[in-house]
Amino acid sequence: MRGEFVDLGGARLYYYAAGSRGSGEPLVFLHGFPTSSHVWRDVVPLVPDGHRVVVVDLLGFGRSDQPLGRDVSIKGHADRVVQLLDSLRIERAAIVGHDVGGGIAQHLAIRHPTRTSKICLINSVAFSNWPTRDVKMAKASLPLTRHLPFTWILGILRSDLQRGYVEHERGHHSVDQYVKPFATPEGRDVLVEHLLALDPSETVALGARLKDIVAPTAIVWGAHDPFLPTTIARELHQAIPGATLDIVPDVRHFTPEEAPETVAGIIEQWLAR
C-alpha cells in the first residue's frame, strides 16, 4: 500500500493505491464530511483480489491540499474525481461513497455514467434530509463562529462526530484523525469553506434523476445512524432501479469502521453483479 499526491489543476489530492490488478473493475473509495480516507482503513484489506483500489482524501481533507477558494461542493469534488480517473488512466470505476462521498457517487452515476460502472452508497447524504440540525446551526452562525477560537469550534465538531460511533474508544481515535487538518486557525478557515459548501439542493436535484441510474447499486446503512436515518436508505432503495439494501444492526453512522467485515462482504456481492 503506497500513498501519493496527484496535481489536478494546481491542487494536490492525496490517494493511496491498494488491491491487486487483475480483470476486476477498479474501485474508488470516497469519504464524507469532515473525515478522510481513514474511514476505509479496515475495509480495503478485505476487498476481493483482482481489483485496482484507489482510496482518496478529497480536497481540503486528510493530507490533500487546502481548497483556497476552489469548489468543494458535491459537484466540485465529483469533477475532481473524474480528473483523478483521467490522471490514473482509469476509464470506468466502481465508486464506494460514505456520507458526502455517497452524494458524489450519485452525481457521478447520473452526470458521468460512462465513467461509473457501479455505485455503493453507505450512510449517504441524499434528498433534502441533511446536513444535521447542529451543522445547519453552525452554518447559520458562521458570521460569529468563524471569529471564535478554533479550539472551541473543534470541541463542537469532536462531540458531534463522537455520536456517530457505538464504540467510544474507536470513535475517539478516529475523530482525532479527522479533526487534525482543522486544528489550526488556517484549518478553521478550511472547515468554514466545507460548511458553506454543504448544500442539500444538490442532492435534491440529483434525487429527481435517481430513476435514471443504470449502474448496479448497493445501499448499506448503520441501523442507528443519528445523522442520516434509515428512512433515507429506504427512500434511495425505492428511487434507484434494482438497488439492494442492507441495514447493519448495532451500528451508527460510521459503518465502514464499526462493521468492516460486513461492508466488505456486501461489496464482494455487489462487485459480482
Descriptive account of the structure:
- The protein is of the alpha/beta class and 273 residues long.
- It has a single domain, classed as Alpha/Beta hydrolase fold, catalytic domain (Rossmann fold), CATH 3.40.50.
- Helices cover 40% and strands 19% of the residues.
- The protein is built from eleven helices and eight strands.
- Strands 1-2-4-3-5-6-7-8 form an eight-stranded mixed beta sheet, with helices on both faces.
- Helix 1 (74-87) crosses helix 2 and helix 5 (150-162) runs antiparallel to helix 6.
- The longest helix has 14 residues, at 74-87.
- What's the gyration radius in Å? 17 Å
The pLDDT mean sits at 93
CATH superfamily: Alpha/Beta hydrolase fold, catalytic domain
From the 3D structure, determine the CATH topology.
Rossmann fold
Termini separation (Å)? Answer: 27 Å
Number of strands: 8
Structural class: alpha/beta
- Biggest beta sheet summary: 8 strands, mixed
- Counting H and I runs of at least 4 residues, what is the number of helices? 11
CATH architecture: 3-Layer(aba) Sandwich
List the defining traits of the structure above:
273 residues; alpha/beta; Rossmann fold; eight-stranded mixed sheet; 40% helix; globular
Nutshell version of this structure?
By secondary structure, the chain is of the alpha/beta class.
Question: Secondary-structure blueprint of this entry?
Answer:
Blueprint (H helix, E strand, L loop, with lengths): L1 E7 L2 E9 L7 E4 L21 E6 L16 H14 L5 E7 H12 L4 E9 L8 H8 L1 H4 L4 H13 L5 H12 L5 H13 L2 H8 L9 E6 L7 H10 L4 E5 L6 H4 L1 H12 L2
Parallel strand pairs: 3-4, 3-5, 5-6, 6-7, 7-8
Antiparallel strand pairs: 1-2, 2-4
